[in-house]
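2024-03-11 09:14:02 DEBUG pipeline.ingest accepted 1 chain
2024-03-11 09:14:02 DEBUG pipeline.ingest length=283
2024-03-11 09:14:03 DEBUG pipeline.predict start
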Amino acid sequence: MPKNIKPFLTIEQQVAHLKSSKMIIHDEEYAKKILAETNYYRLISAYALGLYADDAKTIFMPHVSFGDVYDLYMFDCKLRHMISELLEEFEIKFRTKLAYHIAEKYGPLGYLNQSMFASNEYFMEMLSAMQREKRVQSKSPIVKHHEDCYGGDIPIWAMIEILPFGTISKMFKNMLPKDKAAISRSIGVHQYAFLESWLRSFVEVRNTCAHYGRLYNKTLLFPPRLPKDCDFPANRIFSVWHLLRKFTSPQTTTSATLRLKSALAQHTAVDKHKIGFPKNFQI
């Protein structure tokens, strides 16, 4: 075994290790139950970030308890669900606007024409991704119907429903500026450069949610471009939450806001600055 790899620890050893690191554990049986159901690496390694007293991450700060870390984990589960709902509404709207514009201006199969795109290299990558997706989903009703009835040609309004959001984001980025501008305006964004940036951030967050990853205290790899008047960091999840609310219905926005307020009140271990909340921000 490589000497850099940490050894396996039983549940009991995991608890003992946390105690030796000065984490307060009020109920060891409860801690064992949680660790038996939630991977130590997912729970402790992710949500204890920022709670250590030393750079080597061997000793916890005074008063840090197992309950605190699990509280952060449970809050993040709720946050992930809220963000996922906002993302879903935005994504469906964006897919619709993109497909409608392409079909109206270039025809049902216009997206297969390289002249619609700026980079031939990215265009070829997109075609490869589409063919790969058609193979993966060969038995899906959409692909099978168009194979049986139309020789495999899939119009953009159907293709848009089977492509991953990441592929769609790249498709938009590679479109001609005049088309990106028109699509952006149709969704309420006046500068397509902003929407390009937001899409990249949304894809990152969507992928994190799809794998049940951590949003709390997460530094975004692709922070969205924000207007100059925003007084919060772009590289925290609040920036995405703030932007997504621009595209969702009043009902969805109100529901998400109330749920976030309730979650913050319930999970007292949460540090709002690690989500990226502006100073003195009240929900």
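2024-03-11 09:14:41 DEBUG pipeline.report The chain has a mean pLDDT of 94.
2024-03-11 09:14:41 DEBUG pipeline.predict end
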